[in-house]
Write a structure and sequence with these properties.
The protein is an alpha/beta fold. The protein contains eleven helices and nine strands. The chain has helices at about 20-35, 60-70, 90-100, 115-125, 140-155, 185-195, 225-230, 255-260, 265, 290-295, 300-320, and strands spanning about 50-55, 75-80, 105-110, 130-135, 175-180, 200-205, 220, 235, 275. The structure holds phosphoric acid mono(formamide)ester.
């Protein structure tokens, strides 16, 4: 396991220890204060160059990474893939080599292929690579901002600051993730983050939307979604990924909503303290009702806001740090 992302690429949460995750959360906590200032800028990455390469659509992740880099005073090279030479058939390797030739310190990349960020790490070993979502594999900064958001809410209830707490807030925390687990890189990163911090994770999905093998995941599949809602402290609702053909994995959207949607009626089963999350973008009326998404129990906008300090922490630690030895 890795105990710090300092000086390393951030490709997956599967190899990060609780210590490494808490270091990112504590660093992000410092950057929350920067984001509350009138002048939201610190010189931590002044003179550094961050390339932002989104080969797949994004609103939240792209904007928050670019905002994060600018608030750290880095220069940002943002490639508009749709109007770039990628459309003329330039390979990923040549695209990265071209951008590297301009002089970069970090690449933030989203790509439709699982493993693409790892591949880029091999092409430019002198540059730090941060995975902003690769195919069905991982979305590490989403997993980090999700546990950061939960820690903030729990710490506020305990009248503490998140960084004044260790992982005890997560010990025994009951997390239910519902929906399209099969195609979700968010689910994979969330499960890694929550379990590393000591939470218990269960998943709810139709059989067709579960991955072929769940053996290596430390999660239990629930038999009864309604009952599981009464158990959960945190409910993470996933987007039905229609762009990945998920529609063909369920008999109809209406039937999916009927059985696994977080409808207003079903949300009445939640306990008063339960936290409702969604990584966005939402299919309102499909996996979550609008009334639930906009209810006080939902922290969906807070998840988006927390994307900036978490991504500032990820950039700062990976770009400026010196790597430590792996412990196991
Ligand atoms: N949660 C998330 O990755 O959203 P975007 O696709 O808008 O970046």
């Amino acid at each position: 396991m890795i105990n710090s992302i300092r000086g390393r690429n951030l490709l997956t949460l599967n190899e990060l220890s609780d210590t490494a995750i808490l270091e990112v959360l504590d660093t992000a906590e410092l950057f929350v204060e920067v984001n509350q200032r009138t002048i939201k800028k610190v010189p931590a990455l002044k003179g550094r160059v961050v390339a932002s390469l989104f080969f797949e659509e994004s609103t939240r992740t792209r904007l928050s990474f670019e905002t994060a880099a600018k608030r750290l005073s880095a220069d940002v090279l943002s490639l508009a893939v749709a109007s770039s030479s990628v459309k003329k058939g330039e390979s990923l390797r040549d695209t990265i080599a071209t951008i590297d030739a301009l002089g970069i310190d970090a690449v933030v990349m989203r790509h439709q292929s699982s493993g693409a960020a790892h591949q880029v790490g091999g092409y430019v070993p002198h540059v730090r690579v941060i995975n902003a979502g690769d195919g069905l594999h991982q979305h590490p900064t989403q997993g980090l901002l999700d546990v950061f958001t939960v820690r903030q809410v729990l710490a506020e209830r305990a009248h503490a600051k998140g960084s004044e707490t260790g992982k005890e807030l997560f010990t025994g925390l009951r997390v239910l993730i519902v929906g399209d687990i099969r195609h979700s890189r968010v689910a994979r990163s969330d499960i890694a983050a929550y379990t590393a911090l000591g939470a218990e994770v269960r998943v709810a999905a139709p059989g067709t939307l579960l991955p072929a093998s769940l053996e290596e995941w430390s999660v239990r599949v629930v038999d009864d979604f309604d009952e599981a809602l009464e158990w959960a402290d945190v409910v993470g609702v996933l987007r039905l990924q229609r762009e990945r053909g998920t529609g063909s994995f369920v008999p109809s959207l209406a039937e999916f909503t009927e059985t696994f949607g977080l409808t207003s009626e079903r949300a009445r089963r939640l306990r008063p303290h339960s936290i409702i999350m969604h990584p966005g973008p939402m299919n309102r009326g499909v996996e979550i009702d609008s009334a639930v998404a906009d209810s006080p129990a939902a922290v969906i906008e807070r998840q988006v806001s927390n994307g900036v300090p978490i991504r500032m922490a990820a950039l700062y630690l990976t770009v400026t740090g010196t790597p430590e030895e792996k412990t196991s």
